[in-house]
Amino acid sequence: MAYVIALAGKGGTGKTSTAALAIRYLIENRQGPVLAVDADSNACLNEALGVKVHATIGQLREDSLESIRGGGERPGGMSMEQLFDYQVQQAIIESRGIDLLVMGRPEGPGCYCAANNIIRKYTDKLSETYRYVVIDNEAGMEHLSRRTTHKVDLLVIVSDPTAKGVLTAKRIHELVDELRLDVDKRVLLINRVIGEEGLDLAKTAEKWGITVAGLVPQDDMIFRFDLEGKPLFELPSDAVSMKALFGIFTALQLP
Ligand SMILES: Nc1ncnc2c1ncn2[C@@H]1O[C@H](COP(=O)(O)OP(=O)(O)OP(=O)(O)O)[C@@H](O)[C@H]1O
Ligand SMILES: [Mg+2]
User: Fold this and answer.
1) pTM for this prediction
2) What does the DSSP 8-state code read for residue 127?
3) What are 181-199's pLDDT values in tens digits?
């Protein structure tokens, strides 16, 4: 079974950036295929990874529903489920040693629940064939109750160096207990730290019983990559944020 890493945290704290760099860490330092799952309906992970998206689960589902409604023929007498399995396989984008599955969103005013259920089912199913699964989630906490996977080995809660960010982290931490989610280990990362800031917040979080895995500095290199629209995955290895994150992942002793 795959080792599942999921990201959570307040909006704009650096979940997607951290997911992209975690994936790079795994590819450079561990063996075995990595499945990246973009479970944010506003898909961004592909850009951070520098990968083009040609299909999303949300889209696929719409297409399948259309085809059922239209009484369309299924190739080779496949059941709807088999056809969907096949299509999901086709939707996985393979690039740079990473396979990427994008949830996307249903067209029109549809509910995200269906796409979400499908993502969970396939993340669980695909976990059998990958060594690592990294799930980038949308901001906030709703995804926790909707659950993008049944089991998470490492939940990385990302905060910015603000009281609000750390408070959100606390709420997530509490919700994991309340919902009795199957999360083996959870840590807090305080991202975009300048100088000594963040140290007090880290102490506060520790007092709340949250393990702080480390602080990641504000990185001008990320800013420049953003400005030029370059994928963060290509950040040079001496970038301060990446050095800090790689140090943190090493200390976490991922299997
Ligand atoms: N260490 C850092 N230094 C400088 N900029 C950073 C750093 N980490 C992230 N950023 C920038 O902060 C912004 C938000 O990052 P990111 O998109 O990863 O956050 P997010 O938590 O995934 O956001 P959302 O909640 O919208 O999904 C981006 O412009 C990103 O490039
Ligand atoms: Mg994001």
Assistant:
1) 0.93
2) T
3) 999 999 999 999 998 889 9
